[in-house]
Recover the amino acids of this structure.
């Protein structure tokens, strides 16, 4: 079933790519494996999944240590507390959820002390929801250069989680807003921010149409799990 679901999600992404006339090589599927056991992850891996997303350090660590990294990539997509930064190690190729300058500084300091550079995305609250993590767009615009100058991290792009809506079309304005914000930050600061992480199981097709380079899909592949808003 997992292999079938994965194939269907890939086909839906392909159709969105065709519809929006985008380059397929610019879009990656992040298979969200939170609350999923190792056998299910291995099944998805055998079916061709190459990028997995986890949202809790304490859950991800043992999984990654057992499964390894050969031929696959691990991304951290959940809210990252500053006191958990020291547990990151070199497990994650990309952190999607850097939602403050203080957190970025903490990651940069840790990685600089380990003589490595961590790729990150900056999480932006484009919808203005008070319950959502992420910087306000204005805050990002003011600080994006400061983020990019930190030693120990490399800012690769932006991430957002729009309000949940059963109609994916209602997410479109939030996705287009993130893309426009990225383009504006690049132009005004002479930066290159290639990645846009946006879109989940219920709205990833619209996200692809609006410029997503990373879509985070879990429920459509593994089925429902305990509710944790924002990472499936």
């Amino acid at each position: 079933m997992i292999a079938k679901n994965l194939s269907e999600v890939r086909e839906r992404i392909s159709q969105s790519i065709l519809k929006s006339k985008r380059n397929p090589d610019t879009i990656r599927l992040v298979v969200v494996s939170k609350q999923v056991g190792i056998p299910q992850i291995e099944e998805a891996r055998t079916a061709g999944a190459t990028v997995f997303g986890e949202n809790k350090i304490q859950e991800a660590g043992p999984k990654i240590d057992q499964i390894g990294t050969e031929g696959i990539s691990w991304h951290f997509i959940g809210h990252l507390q500053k006191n958990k930064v020291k547990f990151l190690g070199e497990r994650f190729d990309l952190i999607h959820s850097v939602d403050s300058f203080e957190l970025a500084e903490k990651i940069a300091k840790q990685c600089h002390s380990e003589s490595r550079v961590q790729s990150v995305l900056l999480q932006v609250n484009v919808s203005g929801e008070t319950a959502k993590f992420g910087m306000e767009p204005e805050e990002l615009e003011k600080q994006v250069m400061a983020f990019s100058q930190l030693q120990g991290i490399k800012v690769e792009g932006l991430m957002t989680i729009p309000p949940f809506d059963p109609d994916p079309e209602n997410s479109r304005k939030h996705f287009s807003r993130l893309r426009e914000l990225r383009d504006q930050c690049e132009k005004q600061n002479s930066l290159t921010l290639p990645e846009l992480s946006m879109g989940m199981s219920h709205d990833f097709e619209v996200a692809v149409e609006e410029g997503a380079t990373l879509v985070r899909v879990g429920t459509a592949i593994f089925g429902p799990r305990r509710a944790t808003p924002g990472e499936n």
The beta strands are 28-32, 51-54, 73-76, 94-98, 118-123, 153-159, 195-197, 214-217.
